[in-house]
Design a protein that fits this description.
Arc Repressor Mutant, subunit A, 3-stranded antiparallel beta sheet, single chain, D-Maltodextrin-Binding Protein, domain 2, elongated, 3 domains, alpha/beta
Length: about 300
């Protein structure tokens, strides 16, 4: 059993002791009720005590809980003192390092904008873009080796904060041909060979295409996987392969390669891109600065 507790769980403890009610504690902390309930469960396991017991419509603290309360409050006070310097974060003089995980097409649009902002506002701050890998992203956020993720999780972990920033649609790219029908048939889309970005870059967007094909008893014919969006575009421009990507990057690509963009003839949902960050970093001034910067630039892109 993992006997470690984090600062959020200790903050939940103090709020539960104060309000003696999960719902009120959650509201005071700005967290969901399930998150506070999970924290209480973890604290009970670690301290091997129920800590709070239901009694007369409230949650009464045990003697063990009362004994722990002063020590835990002291710990949180010390942490607050350590964070005072963080509260006065100054990007002009900071040498902080951040990491962002996002799909390649978003990096293409976002990286130049962040670079321009760093050049103007934060000459010594460093930002690293990481390859999109949804299966590893939460663990990296939880360990602190990743600061932000741009992507989509249908059911994000309760320890993450989320904000939807970008909506788009998936389209099909093919070699430019003035004689081709602007609308693809389902049969043509399914039976033509496709090229995709190599996993894990392809992520949720291509998964929804596969799922839509399976619903009609079909399977996408994947002939080739490549590492970059521009390799993908060049292959499509020189072959009869199809490729599916977001409309935003497709509009950029067709200005650089002899390609055409057509609707995908399957029932697929819109593309949603959200910003995710860990609850632990939510109140850090440096993370708030970069989060706001990302939000502003994503709004401009969208």
């Amino acid at each position: 059993m993992d006997n470690k507790v984090d600062l959020q769980q200790l903050a939940c403890y103090v709020a539960l002791m104060k309000y003696q009610n999960v719902s009120k504690a959650a509201n005071a902390l700005g967290l969901s009720q399930p998150t506070v309930s999970l924290s209480l469960k973890k604290l009970r396991e670690v301290f091997k005590d129920p800590l709070l017991i239901r009694s007369n419509g409230r949650m009464a603290p045990t003697s063990r809980a009362l004994a722990l309360e002063v020590e835990i409050q002291e710990i949180l006070h010390k942490v607050d003192a350590l964070n005072k310097s963080e509260a006065s974060f100054d990007p002009q003089h900071s040498e902080a390092k951040f990491s962002i995980m996002c799909p390649e097409f978003l990096e293409y649009f976002l990286a130049p904008r962040i670079a321009a902002r760093l050049q103007k506002e934060a000459p010594s701050i460093k930002v690293e873009f990481k390859t999109s890998n949804p299966s590893e992203a939460f663990e990296m956020l939880d360990k602190g080796t990743l600061d932000f993720r741009l992507g989509w999780w249908p059911k994000p972990n309760l320890m993450l904060r989320t904000k939807i920033l970008f909506r788009d649609e998936l389209v099909c790219l093919s070699k430019k041909d003035s004689h081709s029908n602007p609308k693809l048939s389902v049969s043509e889309f399914i039976n033509t060979r496709h090229i995709r970005l190599q996993a894990p870059r392809n992520g949720v967007s291509t998964m929804v295409i596969d799922q839509a094909a399976l619903k009609i008893g079909e399977k996408i014919n994947i002939a080739l996987e490549v590492q970059t969006i521009f390799s993908l575009a060049k292959v499509v421009s020189e072959t009869n392969f199809f490729a599916c990507t977001c409309k935003k990057i497709a509009q950029e690509i067709i200005n650089k390669f002899p390609l055409q963009m057509r609707p995908i003839p399957l029932n697929i949902p819109e593309v949603r891109i959200a910003l995710y960050w860990h609850e632990r970093t939510h109140r850090q001034a440096s993370h708030a600065w970069l989060k706001n910067l990302i939000e502003e630039e994503m709004q401009a892109i969208n």
